[in-house]
Please model this.
Amino acid sequence: MEPAAERARARRGARLSAAALLALLALLALLAGRGGEGQPGSPPLPPGLLEELRQRRRDLRRLAAGGGGGGAAGALGCGDLRRVSGVSVVGWGFTKVVLRAALAGGGAVALKSVHGAGREVRQCVQRYAAPAGCHRLAAYKLLKEVALLQRLRHPGIVQLHGQCYDSSGDPEVKVTAMLELGSPLEMIQLLQTPWEERFKICLSLVKLLFYLAHSPLGSIALLDFQPRQFVMVDGNLKVTDMDDASTEELSCKEDNDCTLDFPTKSFPLKCSTVGKCEGINEKKNLFNAYRYFFTYLLPHSAPPALQPSLSDILNATGDLRYGINETLKAFEKVLHLYKSGLYLQKRPLLLKEYISLKGFRTVEVENYKCWPSYSHLGCLLSVHSAEEAAAICNSQSQCQSFIVTQQRTWTGRPLASFQSSPTGLIPDVNAVVYIKRSASTGGRL
Model:
């Protein structure tokens, strides 16, 4: 039975979402009457720009008025925007600029608005010589992103905290989205992290793509699918740019209309009886995940016993033999093997070669380093058990002792610290030091 507080929160969220969508529809009506789209005395906009504006407005109206969803609009508004401080530039792209700002009540948000000097506005002005209309065209993309974020709620999608539609600066309406603040995804840094953390990124992405394939708005494709469209929030991967997302699957008359083209591969798809290319959005997302994420993050430094399963995932997604459902099942199987320790190959028991000293730990000093380690100062690795840690220690010539620490990774596995010397023991009731018997005979204990 759902608690009363949860039901009340859901009702408030639904009311907020409905109110925000009604405000968006009202804003669309306001925009439609400005700058040559119905406002007397304004210079007419070029026919080509008018048509682009009308198309984006139709898309927005369909998103705002469509069924489904269940997400809630953020609680922040224009009043909160006026009270922010410490504003600094985070980055900018083709259409938008992103700022970081501190809220008056504490915390920080990302502020997205139209980038007036961005390529989209500049190229539009070069084409149509209508700055106000071109700014509005870019604003529609931001409004689309807000509408999507109001409808879609998932841990892999950046959260919408609020929005501000400021019409005081006539003839332009300023649109600002207030979003969850993340840090840019740095692939070079990710490649240097332990395999378990890279697997987490890929699994999070697969869960997001599963949601997008079965979303309340239908199957959604991320048309501009690249690492720069994602951020990290508290160690979790989130897509932050939704303005190029498509909720429509490609129309077709025959199968030949449904070829999915990438720079190095093409995939023939089927044209359904309703005139849509079957699964094209899902498959587009999945292959992009393969070529931008899986290829780089999955195989390197993975446990040897898991590599065949990971190779199967790479081959099946690279050839689009798996859909998103099958891909998620394959990832969950790998996760189960890894968390349970079933992936560990049968090997001689090595822990018997170690002396265990309960109630002690070693002094934390800089020791030998290994890659990829959870610590830059030493060799700190994820293990399933002390037995696996013993096998790792035996495989490293410098290792003479190790401690299975109280620290846990996101899978619940403990971290083990590997040391080149068993000296410097201090009491710790929660710790156990494992020392190679060959090292203990040296009289250093």
Q: What stands out?
A: The chain is about 40% helix and 20% strand. Residues 369 and 378 are 4 Å apart (CA to CA).
